[in-house]
Amino acid sequence: MLTLYHSRAGRGERPPDLASARLPANVAWLDLLNPVPDETAFVARATGLHVPTIDELSEIESSSRLRHQNGAIYLSAPLVYRAESDQPLTTPVGFLLTRERLITVRFEELTSFNTFINRDLSDESDPLTSGAVFAGLIDAIADRLADILESIASELDTLSHRLFRNPVTERPSAGARKRRSADHSATRRAQWRPRLEDPR
To answer: What is the DSSP secondary-structure string of 168-191?
Structure first.
């Protein structure tokens, strides 16, 4: 699916005729989601830029991840999707940035993209530029990754409690209670000792 976002973006629109190579001058962002060949060919003809395939975006060499070609910056990165499921996956995403427009190529629905579109793109928003859209998407992606990391940290914390701490229902033995009481007393003495020995 190809969606065009004009400088006054709203929620974007589909191109009326893929057979035409003309692209409105005020289009700031072209978003390709799991594109069909006709959509990829239209973007290539209309912009004069090479639209990378999923195989090209999946390359792991650093020279393939970021490069400058024909006046455009090409960036690719794997992003997480289905993060809330039992089997989160990654999918390659491509960014082609020029002074006039941004082209994104992705093959899965991504929460970060939807968040950016629903939060930042409206009829009342400031006029869009390719750089502003790129910065907004990167910010939304960073926020999404932070949310995922926080969720993972919470799950790991819960798991560590289950693995390494006694269950609440398990009553400690008399010996364990005595050792715990001795440890607490030693800790209190250590905390107060500097104050008692302070000559001031």
So the answer is: TTPPPPHHHHHHHHHHHHHHHHHH
User: How far is it, in rounded angstroms, from Cα 170 to Cα 75?
Assistant: 54
Average model confidence (pLDDT) across the chain:
78
- Please state, for a pLDDT cut of 70, what percent of the chain lies above it: 76
Residue 101 pLDDT more than 80? yes
Domain membership flag for residue 26: yes
Average of per-residue pLDDT across 21-36: 87
Residue 18 lies in a domain: yes
Q: What is the largest CA-CA distance in the chain?
A: 89
Asked, for residue 172, whether it belongs to a domain, the answer is no
Please tell me the predicted confidence (pLDDT) of residue 24: 79
Q: Which residues span the domain enclosing 25? A: 2-153
What's the gap between Cα 170 and its chain centre? 42
How far is CA 181 from each of CA 171, 177, 193, rounded to the nearest angstrom? 15, 6, 18
Note whether residue 168 is domain-resident. no
- Distance separating alpha carbons of residues 139 and 116, to the nearest angstrom: 9
Q: Describe the crossing of helices 130-164 and 111-120 by its angle, rounded to 10 degrees.
A: 130
